[in-house]
């Protein structure tokens, strides 16, 4: 699949897709005309990368996590990686608590 097709499937522009190639090299073949030809699993890889970036993970940690990714969007335990996820998880939990409090404040103000 061409980069434009992958961009449409994932809702991502072409520029980040090229960056993601450096995070997790995909099985990309270069056609005779110089176009990238992405494999069928590229969509799942892009979705994993976007979700992990949104969770606040560094690209280096994502590079380590992607081999643990399963097609359904989950991550299976990988040796040496689980401990590295505890800090980002704690930050996400803190953000979720803050958002919950902010939502409650807004709801009370609306009532």
UniProtKB/TrEMBL annotation:
Signal peptide from the UniProt entry: none
Taxonomy, superkingdom: Bacteria
Matches recorded under InterPro entries: DNA-bd_dom_put_sf, MerR-type_HTH_dom, MerR_fam
SUPFAM superfamilies, sorted: Putative DNA-binding domain
SMART domains (UniProt xref): HTH_MERR
Keyword hit for Transcription: yes
All copies of domain HTH merR-type, residue ranges: 1-68
Gene3D superfamilies recorded: 1.10.1660.10
Gene Ontology molecular function: DNA binding; DNA-binding transcription factor activity
The entry's keywords: DNA-binding, Transcription, Transcription regulation
Protein name per its UniProtKB record: MerR family transcriptional regulator
Source organism per UniProt: Amycolatopsis alkalitolerans
Lineage of the species this protein comes from: Bacteria, Bacillati, Actinomycetota, Actinomycetes, Pseudonocardiales
């Amino acid at each position: 699949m061409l980069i434009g097709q992958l961009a449409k499937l994932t809702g991502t522009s072409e520029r980040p897709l090229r960056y993601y190639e450096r995070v997790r090299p995909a099985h990309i073949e270069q056609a005779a005309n110089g176009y990238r030809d992405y494999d069928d699993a590229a969509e799942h890889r892009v979705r994993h990368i976007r979700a992990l970036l949104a969770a606040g993970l560094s690209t280096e940690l994502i590079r380590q996590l992607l081999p643990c990714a399963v097609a359904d969007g989950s991550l299976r335990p990988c040796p040496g990686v689980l401990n590295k996820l505890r800090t980002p998880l704690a930050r996400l939990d803190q953000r979720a608590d803050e958002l919950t409090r902010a939502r409650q404040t807004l709801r009370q103000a609306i009532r």
